C-alpha cells in the first residue's frame, strides 16, 4: 500500500506537527486507545490524522502495526485500515475549504480528514 502527500497537504500538516509526534492515520472503528466514540455505524469510512505526543506510552501504539513511508516520514495505521484503502492513496488539501482529504484513483475515500492532537492526559 502506498500513501503520498501533496505539497500543499505537507505544508498544512507540518504547520501543526510538533517535534517528536507520532503520526497515525486512524480509521474510526471504535478500537484502540484513541477512541472518541464508543462505536461507529458509518457506511463511509472516517479517517483522521492523529498527532500523538512523544510523551504517550509507546505500548499504546501497538494497534497501529502497519507503517507506510511518506514524504513527511512514517505514518502508522491499524491493519483494519488496509481494508478501507486502495493500493495507491493520497492526502491532498482541498483548495476551497482548506481541509485535508484522502483520495485514491477510485475517488474520495474521506472528504474531511481532521488533524487531532493526542497528549498523554487525553487518554483514558
TrEMBL record:
Instruction: List the SUPFAM superfamilies hit by this protein, alphabetically.
Output: HesB-like domain
Name the InterPro entries on file: ATAP_core_dom, HesB-like_dom_sf
The superkingdom listed in its UniProt entry is: Bacteria
Which residues are in the Core domain? 1-116
Could you tell me what this protein is called? Iron-sulfur cluster biosynthesis family protein
Native organism is Enterococcus camelliae
Amino acid at each position: 500500500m502506498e500513501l503520498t502527500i501533496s505539497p500543499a497537504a505537507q505544508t498544512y500538516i507540518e504547520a501543526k506537527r510538533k517535534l517528536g509526534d507520532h503520526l497515525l492515520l486512524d480509521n474510526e472503528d471504535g478500537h484502540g486507545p484513541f477512541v472518541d466514540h464508543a462505536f461507529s455505524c458509518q457506511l463511509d469510512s472516517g479517517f483522521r490524522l492523529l498527532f500523538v505526543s512523544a510523551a504517550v506510552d509507546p505500548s499504546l501504539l501497538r494497534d497501529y502495526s502497519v507503517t507506510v513511508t511518506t514524504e513527511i516520514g512514517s505514518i502508522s495505521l491499524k491493519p483494519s485500515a488496509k481494508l478501507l484503502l486502495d493500493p495507491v492513496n493520497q492526502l491532498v488539501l482541498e483548495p476551497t475549504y482548506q481541509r485535508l482529504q484522502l483520495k485514491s484513483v477510485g475517488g474520495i475515500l474521506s472528504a474531511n480528514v481532521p488533524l487531532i492532537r493526542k497528549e498523554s492526559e487525553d487518554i483514558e
